[in-house]
Design brief:
Radius of gyration: 16 Å
Structural class: alpha/beta
Strand order of the largest sheet: 1-2-3-4-5-6-7
Strand content: 25-35%
Largest sheet: 7 strands, mixed
Distance between the termini: 30 Å
Order of helices and strands: EEEEHEHEHEEEEEEEHEEH
Length: 232
């Protein structure tokens, strides 16, 4: 399980671009499946945003309060309940704008139709403030969030590149990859999405996955057993 710690992230920045050392990342597993929720903020200007509020919105609001920063946005990696169940409550308490793919918009719009597994708790509907498809850059009060289409685990999965690190949702894990046997999943699409990240960003780029521990692109390219046949 990802350590519940506050970290300054400095690795994986493209050459020639100084990493903003004031960026902090707080990781908290949340919700019934303990998906990783991330609060990213700039301790100098107080700007911040949440990635994948899977549940326990009160706990996540406490993380935001403890940071002393604001939460100007919520970014969702994909349309599975364990990554977005706390969205409506957290958006209401913070006033944050909500961003995600059209897939996320469908799930948030009619959550009763998209139960991931039997017995999982329901969650309130919520409308996206902006639909993302990949290729966009969203500015959250001075923090740039680059959006990368990363289908495979689900058709509308997105990866977020922020301050030299990647938030991959359920695309890529430490030593594993996201499952592709759920509706809309595709191993071929997932493999292409992972390969795109590995070829696009520096090897030491840090990866913050939707479950489990952090890793790097280099570590996964060299050691992940699910990536050995991608034809490097």
């Amino acid at each position: 399980m990802l350590a519940l710690a506050l970290e300054s992230q400095r690795g994986g920045q493209p050459p020639g671009k100084e990493f903003p050392i004031s960026i902090e990342i707080v990781a908290r597993p949340a919700g019934p499946l303990q998906a990783n929720s991330y609060f990213v903020y700039d301790r100098e200007n107080g700007a911040g945003f949440m990635i994948d509020p899977g549940g326990d919105a009160g706990m996540l609001a406490g993380v935001i309060e403890a940071s002393g920063a604001g939460c100007g946005a919520i970014f969702i990696t994909h349309g599975h309940a364990d990554h977005l169940g706390g969205t409506s409550e957290l958006a209401a308490s913070t006033g944050a704008a909500v961003y995600g793919s059209s897939e996320v918009g469908m799930v948030l719009g009619e959550p009763e139709k998209f139960q991931l597994f039997p017995g999982m708790p329901g969650f309130p509907a919520h409308e996206l403030d902006r639909i993302l498809a990949g290729g966009e850059t969203v500015d959250v009060n001075g923090i740039e969030v680059n959006v990368i289409a990363s289908p495979g685990h689900s058709p509308g999965s997105l990866t977020y590149h922020v301050a030299g690190v990647l938030f991959t949702g359920d695309l890529l894990f430490h030593g594993s990859i996201g499952r592709t046997d759920l509706p809309g999943g595709s191993f071929e699409a997932l493999a292409a999405s992972v390969k795109n990240l590995i070829l696009r960003y520096p090897p030491d780029t840090k990866v913050y996955p939707g479950h489990g521990n952090t890793t790097t692109l280099e570590q996964e390219r060299e050691n992940n057993p699910f990536l050995t046949d991608l034809g490097w």
